[in-house]
Amino acid sequence: MPELAQVVVDVPTMQTNQPYTYQIPATLEKQIQLGVRVVVPFGKGSRTVQGFVVGLDQATDYDGKLKPIQAVMDLQPVINRELLTLSKWLADTTYSFWISCLYTMLPNLLKAKTSRIVRIIDEVSEDVFFDIFHGKDELDLSTVQDQPAIISQLLKLKRAGKVAIDYRIEDRARAKTVTGIRSRLTFEQLEDERLGLHSNAHAQNKLLSYLQTIGEKVVKLKEAERLTGLKAATFNQGQKKGWLEKVPVEVYRTPLGQTPSPDDQHLAKPLTLNDDQAAAVQAIDRAIDQQESPTFLLQGVTGSGKTEVYLQAIAAALAQGRTALMLVPEISLTPQIVNRVRSRFGSKMAVLHSSLSNGERFDEWRRIERGEAQVVVGARSAVFAPLKKIGIIILDEEHEASYKQDESPRYHAREVAKWRGKYHHAPVILGSATPSLESRARAVKKVYQLLSLPHRVNEQPLPPIQVVDMREQVKKYGESNFSRELLQAVDQRLQRREQSILMLNRRGFSSFMMCRDCGAVLKCPNCDISLTLHMDTRTMKCHYCGHEEPIPQVCPNCHSRQIRYYGTGTEKVEQELQQLLPQARIIRMDVDTTRRKGMHEKLLRQFGQHQADILLGTQMIAKGLDFPNVTLVGVLNADTGLGLPDFRSSERTFDLLSQVSGRAGRANKQGQVIIQTYNPDHYAIKDAQAHDYDRFFKQEMGLRHQAGYPPYYFTVRLMASHPEEAQAAKAMAKIHDRLKRGLMPSTIILGPTPRAIARMKRRYYYQIVIKYKKDPHLHELLFDILQDTQSKGYKDVQVSIDPDPQYFM
Question: What is the pTM of this model?
Answer without folding.
Answer: 0.83
